[in-house]
Amino acid sequence: MSIGKLFIGASLATAFFAVLGTNSAHAAVQTCNWTGTAGDNKFSTAGNWSNCGSSAPQSGDVIRFPGTLAASVNLVNDLNVPLGGIVTVPNAQNSPTAMGFVYVIDKVELSDGAGIQVEDAAACDRPTGIKIGQVSSTGSVTVNTEAIYLNGPVLPTYMINGALSIENRWGLGLIEVKVGSTAAEVIVKSPHVYSPTCVDSGGRGAMPNEPFDYLQNISYNKLTLEKGSVASFGTSFAKPLTVGGGIGTTPAKVFYWPTRNEAQTASVPTSVSISGPITLNSDLLINVGDRATASITGVLTGTGKISKSPMATGTLLLKSTDNTSATSPSTVSFPATTTTITDSNTNAAIIAVENETVTLTGKRAGAYVAEKAILKGSGTLTGQLFVEANGTVAPGNSPGCLTAGTLILNGDYTFEIGGTDPCTGYDQIKATDTAAPNSVSLDSATATLTTARYKSYTPKQNQFFTIIDNQGPNQVLGTFKDLAEGATFEQDGIVFKISYKGGDGNDVTLTVQNVPTVPNTGGMVLKANPALIAAVSIAGATVLAGAARLASKRR
Predict the structure, then answer these.
(1) Are 5 and 213 in contact (CB under 8 A)?
(2) How many other CB atoms are found less than 10 A from the CB of residue 461?
(3) Is residue 312, in this structure, part of any structural domain at all?
(4) Domain that residue 57 falls in
(5) Considering the chain, what percentage of its residues have pLDDT values greater than 70?
(6) What is the Cα–Cα distance from 464 to 467, expressed in whole angstroms?
(7) Which of 247, 286, 361, 484 is the most buried (most CB within 10 A)?
(8) Residue 116: left (phi > 0), alpha (psi -120 to 50), or beta?
């Protein structure tokens, strides 16, 4: 099976390029520096090289490309010998590669153990990029993804008889290959460490929030993830997987992201499986994205374990019937936890994960409520409140008001009614952003409303309750599921009429339509009609800035 683009991350690995073999023309292999002085751009012309024994590179030699380049150069490799490696030299920030200038090479054959590498540098400078039409080897090779220039329509073909190892400095990298590429095995290396150490400011890449397999168009037999490496999949994975090795200090990670809707504003339910055998020589973290479900069904062996990433917002299921590893149901799901936040920190956001109940009485920048998570309290979010499908927001502590800049509701709003005044008598969500185009967005397919009487409170006929105080300038986007404008529904003897144009014209209100009966203490079921349980979700909006990628702070 071919898996899509392999997005790779590597943790720490020694910079290496192997130099192999000797021949009669060369007493020892050497590193030949490209100068291009002869002007014909051919590898076989001795005048294009320095430090190469007055000749062109021979079998096993390493070729090195300098960091000075005034324009892209097309080079012809007419040597017909395997090379011991390729090295590119880093530049200052205003590098040729940054300006789109690269070395374009038609083809390269590499010796077993050779690599395409970046020369160590004292600063985080970008290497001069190279493009190669075809990379082949009768053995195994290592590719530092920082050396490969990725922009442009031309993709390289990799024909590797052994293992194709991929590494970079960040733990996130990208290698793209042309259809028809092959390798016996793909190894995602631990992140590469340069000497002297490069302290990078980050921002070079981020995991996408959409399905993307990051080994595209290449046929291979098995995958190895060294410690600290990262791979991202968007479809089911059935190949043998080995986890461990390398010099990383953190667990390897696999990301599974769900499908996005056509407008790219919300996730749609996505189910994938990991069905191949997994050898766990060290631990593996799996981060399952919004509304995605990943099922582990393959044979599990080894001393390590699979755990659900602390940042995961989807569902991870252990369905393997042959498991001798340290993996258990308790490691692939989160235990029930409660978190209380009372302080003020508008530089931090909340991520409420599966089986977690977060009570906010302080202040945060924003909140993401995952499936099977609950956000309660009377605190304030200066930014966005995003409630995922099957997540719950329940304002107050019976009852109360929760304030957010904007509200995106894909999940459930649990509303308690116990009096006539908001915040003290009944629950309310206040959306206070007056500049946002949509301060309140409800997913008409998944957003649900659940109502409950607090202390058996019985409202009067024609009494109304503003359940969402929309202080923005525009109308509410969307509706609760099965509850259009003016719809009525019954809960525990109370018939409510809903409006999205209530209050000052754009609030969400409930108005009592009947003389309520004595409450049924066993009831808490909302009915949009006799056949449907009203469930509420909201889509139509961008994922909370950073969403599961935002740093969470829960204290």
Answers:
(1) yes
(2) 12
(3) no
(4) 2-204+215-226
(5) 77
(6) 9
(7) 286
(8) beta
* Domain-located, residue 189: yes
100: left (phi over 0), alpha (psi -120 to 50) or beta: left
Within 10 angstroms of residue 31's Cβ, the number of other Cβ atoms is: 16
Residue 21, Cα to own-chain centre: how many angstroms?
43
In 199-212, which positions are buried (b, 16+ CB within 10 angstroms) versus exposed (e)? eeeeeeeebbbebb
**Contact (Cβ atoms closer than 8 angstroms) between residue 133 and residue 107:** yes
Q: What residue type is 302 in one-letter code? A: G
Whether 308 is in a domain gets the answer no
Write the CB contacts of 24 (distance below 8 Å, at least 6 apart in sequence).
Answer: none
Tracing tokens 């740093």 back to the chain, one arrives at 551
The count of structural domains within the chain is: 2
Residues 252, 257: Cα–Cα separation, whole Å: 17
Q: Cα(19)–Cα(260) distance, rounded to whole angstroms?
A: 46
439-459 in b/e form (b: 16+ CB < 10 A) is bbbbbbbbbbbbbbbbeebeb
Handedness of CA 471, 474, 480, 482 (dihedral sign): positive
In this structure, which amino acid lies at residue 411? G
**pTM of this structure:** 0.71
User: What type of residue sits at position 483?
Assistant: L
The backbone torsions φ and ψ at residue 157, rounded to the nearest 5 degrees and listed phi first, read -105, 130
The count of other CB atoms within 10 Å of the CB of residue 395 is 30
Query: Which DSSP state fits 266?
Result: S
Q: If pLDDT is split at 50, 70 and 90, which confidence band does 495 have? A: very high
Distance CA(375)–CA(544), nearest Å, equals 15
